[in-house]
Fold this sequence. Notes:
The structure is a single chain. The chain has 268 residues and is α/β, with parallel strands linked by helices. The protein has one domain: Metallo-dependent phosphatases (Purple Acid Phosphatase, chain A, domain 2). The protein has helices at 2-15, 57-66, 85-94, 106-110, 113-126, 160-170, 187-192, and strands spanning 24-30, 39-44, 70-73, 100-102, 129-130, 134-140, 143-150, 177-181, 197-200, 218-219, 223-224, 231-235, 238-242, 261-267. The protein has a 6-stranded mixed β-sheet with strand order 1-14-2-3-4-5, covered by helices on one side. A 6-stranded mixed β-sheet has the order 6-7-8-9-13-12. A two-stranded antiparallel ribbon has the order 10-11. Strand 2, helix 2 and strand 3 (70-73) form a beta-alpha-beta unit. The radius of gyration is 19 Å and the shape is globular. The termini are far apart. The model has no long low-confidence stretch (mean pLDDT 94). Fe (ii) ion binds at residues 46, 48, 76, 105, 107, 202, 204, 245, 247.
Amino acid sequence: xxxxxxxxxxxxxxxxxxxxxxxxxxxxxxxxxxxxxxxxxxxxxxxxxxxxxxxxxxxxxxxxxxxxxxxxxxxxxxxxxxxxxxxxxxxxxxxxxxxxxxxxxxxxxxxxxxxxxxxxxxxxxxxxxxxxxxxxxxxxxxxxxxxxxxxxxxxxxxxxxxxxxxxxxxxxxxxxxxxxxxxxxxxxxxxxxxxxxxxxxxxxxxxxxxxxxxxxxxxxxxxxxxxxxxxxxxxxxxxxxxxxxxxxxxxxxxxxxxxxxxxxxxxx
Length: 268
Ligand SMILES: [Fe+2]
């Protein structure tokens, strides 16, 4: 009896922490060559309009605590089912306080054209710039970087060919280059184009993980045992960082050993 109780306690001790879905802040450091001051990027992806406290305070406070120089919004901030309120509240909480750039994910597109247009109007009204198809120079702490972005390949006016064309058109930029792209599975294309750093989301960390054994069970685009589920990868000279995203109640299957992430990337 005592052994059975002990085994049950052990089992519960192993299983219950796996369902912890509190916000996790994950840090990465990337060597950006000759820069004099570190630059801090907050990568926010796959919020899916989920709730993080009253007025999204929990998420906004977590961003503020990191004092990022810029915020990159990597798609699926809106959801195609959940109402846009939580996404809008979060965006309103950061807009005007940080330089913010946005690329779309597949769920903005899934919302349908009419709702998609409304979501983009929310961004416009808040002054959050869309980065899709653009390459721009930005200066942070007196240092110059090139920031590029692509909208999701399922976005309106986009298809697989146009996506490839657009990514290639952004290549060949001066200095340290960053590509914000919702989908990590095109990493061979991104690396071929020579981007120094690629920031992505989309995978939700493969939903279920086993620490030290399995980094993600399934993603919609890569199937079972995805190669690129979450974390940091090196492909030639290109560093890929995939956020496991912030989706919680928008998905029916719970996250296991896969806490929602706010990603902070420090360029040094
Ligand atoms: Fe997503």
